Amino acid sequence: MKNADEKYMRECFRLALKGKGKTFPNPMVGCVILNKEGKLVSKGYHKKCGENHAERDALLKLKNNEAEGGTLYVNLEPCSHYGKTPPCTDLIIEKKIKRVVIGMKDVNPKVDGISQLKKSGIAVDSVLREEAEFLNRIFIKNITKKLPYVVLKTATTIDGKISTKTGDSKWITSQKAREEVYKMRKEYDCIMTSSNTVIADNPKMEHKFKCILDKDERIPKESLILKDGNIYIATKNNTPLKNGRLNLKSVLKELYKMGICSVFLECGGTLAGSFLKENLIDEVFQFIAPEILNDNSGSSCFNGDSVLKIKDAKKLKIYEFGKIGEDILIKYVL
Ligand SMILES: NC(=O)c1ccc[n+]([C@@H]2O[C@H](COP(=O)([O-])OP(=O)(O)OC[C@H]3O[C@@H](n4cnc5c(N)ncnc54)[C@H](OP(=O)(O)O)[C@@H]3O)[C@@H](O)[C@H]2O)c1
Q: What are the pLDDT digits (tens) for 205-214?
């Protein structure tokens, strides 16, 4: 039973991922339904915010009572309240499902699906909780912290440098790596960068929503980054200061209020270091080019703290790595 439960839960994860980048502020959810003989009879997933939840999508495809006495797999606890759609628990009960297997409990306090199902005599089990939580880490951060999820992208030499002491930085990584970055940006609600990076590189950074941290409004009006998309410039006039700099948490809170669930941060070592020191980064995507600068006066990808003991270094966990063209991409969670 455990192996079968894991197999069908993995199928839910696969289906859930079809909604990647389209479900925010909702989670990514997939659902699989077996009949009482254990035959797979329906599948569904949450396609985008406002559309049917995964369970409803799968349950509405059933013919007559074909899932009566069967099992429903879903990677997130079914909802039990009226939101944009009616409660999924009602439909599960109506279709006479006997057992529900979930990946994780919903962190939304309005959801009480497990007890609703149990009250109706439906058995509820859980499987692959850690994987289910990892899949919906953006949603969990949004609901529990009321902040957007932050991914920092950096492109470095193998000695962790992003530019020489003269500020020369183009290009460390290959064209293929840069194309990969263009694709990644689309998966996040907002890209964020700094005044220094805009002034140094004049990047275009095409995106529907861009946030620039520019306390003293130093960036030139003709900067390419300002040419398209919605632009939010955080300055000392709209953001509180902390130790003389923009308060980064306040900027993130403001973005969350604007409906931004995820931020893709592309900046130099100063801002990256401040974000890291304040524990505001959730993940790091590091492109590493097979190059060595061999000069300590070049800029490092993180430069925000004075640390005397190696034991005090920030600890990360690698969850994915691979080769992109000639470079390596490592993805870490903090
Ligand atoms: N290799 C890469 O992946 C990559 C990516 C991007 C940039 N870069 C390179 O990075 C270099 C720029 O690096 P940098 O270290 O000078 O600048 P940075 O880290 O991009 O930005 C620093 C600036 O951010 C602003 N900022 C706002 N709030 C802050 C806070 N709380 N803490 C710290 N900074 C805050 C400050 O400017 P205000 O006072 O004006 O607000 C500060 O001067 C450029 O040469 C660029 O090419 C490399």
A: 999 999 999 9
